[in-house]
C-alpha cells in the first residue's frame, strides 16, 4: 500500500516519554497511523512496544507527549472518557484475555450488551457472523478452558473486532502458536484487511509482520528512528533493520 499525503490520519503519536522508576522506556516516540493501514511495530524485549499500545487505550499514562485520536489527546482524558475510546479501539491481547467463566458466545456478546442498544436477536446474529469469520461456528457454548490456544486467540480477535472499532491493536497475537494456528490467525487478519481495517501489529514474529503489515516501525533506544514500507524494509541494508529482518529474510527467501 502506498501512503500518500492526502491519506486520512487515524492516530498520531507525538514525542511520547515514559519512565518506570529509573528506566526510561520512551524518550520521544513519534509516528502516524493512517486509515486503512496496518503498521508493524518491531523492537527488542523490554523496548516498550506493549507500553505504546497500553498508552493508546489509556491503561498507561505517558509522562509527556500526545496521542491524538479523533481530535482528542488520549493522554488527557478521564477514566469515564476513556470508556468511549475503548469502544472505538479494539485490543487483541497476547493471551486472548477471555473471561474464564463465560462461554465463547457470552464473551463475544459482552461488549455489545455493555456498549450498544442492540436487541438480543441482533447481538446473536453478530456473534454468529463473527464465529463464521474466524472459522469457529458451533463453538458458542464452549468455555475458554475447552478451547485450544489457537482458538482462544481467534475468539479474542473476534471479541476485539465485534464492536467494529476504528483501530485494532494487536499485542503479540501469534505468540505461542504453532505454524498452522499462526497461519489461521493471519488468514483472519487478512480477511479484515480486505474490509479496510486500521491497526498496529506488535510482534517478535517478523515473518508474520512482513506478511500482514503495510509499513514497519522500529522502536530502538526509546525512539522510532526507522519507519518505512515493508518492501523498503525487506531491501534495507541498514544494520538496525537487518538485525530484525535478516533471519526471516533467509527463511522466506526474500532477497
Q: What does the model show?
A:
- It is a single chain.
- This protein is α/β, with parallel strands linked by helices and 255 residues long.
- The chain has a domain at 9-101 and 168-252: 3-Layer(aba) Sandwich (Rossmann fold).
- Helices cover 39% and strands 25% of the residues.
- A hairpin with a 2-residue loop joins β9 and β10 (223-229).
- It has helices spanning 49-56, 79-88, 104-115, 120-133, 149-161, 179-194, 206-212, 230-235, 239-252; strands spanning 9-20, 23-34, 38-43, 64-69, 72-73, 89-92, 167-171, 199-202, 215-220, 223-229.
- It contains nine helices and ten strands.
- Mean pLDDT is 89; it is low at 250-255.
- α3 packs across α4 (120-133), α3 packs parallel to α5 and α5 packs parallel to α6 (179-194).
Question: Topology of this protein?
Answer:
Layout: E1 9-20, E2 23-34, E3 38-43, H1 49-56, E4 64-69, E5 72-73, H2 79-88, E6 89-92, H3 104-115, H4 120-133, H5 149-161, E7 167-171, H6 179-194, E8 199-202, H7 206-212, E9 215-220, E10 223-229, H8 230-235, H9 239-252
Parallel strand pairs: 3-8, 3-9, 6-7, 7-8
Antiparallel strand pairs: 1-2, 1-4, 4-5, 9-10
Helix pairs in contact: 3-4, 3-5, 5-6
Provide a quick synopsis of the model.
The protein is α/β, with parallel strands linked by helices. The chain contains nine helices and ten strands. The longest helix has 16 residues, at 179-194.
